[in-house]
Amino acid sequence: MINIRAVEVEPMERPRAIHVVYAKWCPHCVPTTVEPLERRAEELGIPCFLHDIDTDEVKLADDLVEKYGDWSSDYVIPQVFLEQSDGKFEHVLTGSSRGVTFTKSLVENLLASGPLAKSRP
Fold first, then answer.
1. Which domain holds residue 40?
2. Contact 64, 51 (CB under 8 A)
3. Nearest Cα to 63, choosing from 40, 46, 85, 79?
4. Is 79 a member of any domain?
5. Which of 15, 18, 22, 44 has a CA-to-CA distance to 85 between 20 and 30 Å?
6. What are the tens digits of pLDDT across the range 24-63?
7. What angle do helix axes 100-112 and 34-44 make, rounded to 10 degrees?
8. For the CA atoms of the chain, what is the radius of gyration?
9. In what order do the strands lie in the sheet with 48-52?
10. What is the pTM of this model?
11. Which CATH number goes with the domain that contains 60?
12. Phi, psi of 85, rounded to the nearest 5 degrees
């Protein structure tokens, strides 16, 4: 006999903002990650903050990755974070060292489901 029980799940909250740690020279970042996330942020009416590791943003970028992401002294980019309405950050993506095609697939999956999906059930 199989016992099935329904569980109520709270719908995922839309984030307050998207944060992308990236570098302009990185093909995993531009256009692979930055452009689709900027478009989705615009569609959702939320800001997309870009933290370029080769500018004055490096300290904030490093802090985000060290606190919430996949940290090492030479961390992988891009890394994507969702800022929630309560101010908490959630790490949702790190680029793939296996190649740009893999990073592109990760970005597509991120945009297809979860809090960044266009339409949710």
1. 17-116
2. yes
3. 79
4. yes
5. 22
6. 999 999 999 999 999 999 999 999 999 999 999 999 999 9
7. 10
8. 16
9. 48-52, 17-22, 79-83, 89-94
10. 0.88
11. 3.40.30.10
12. -65, -25
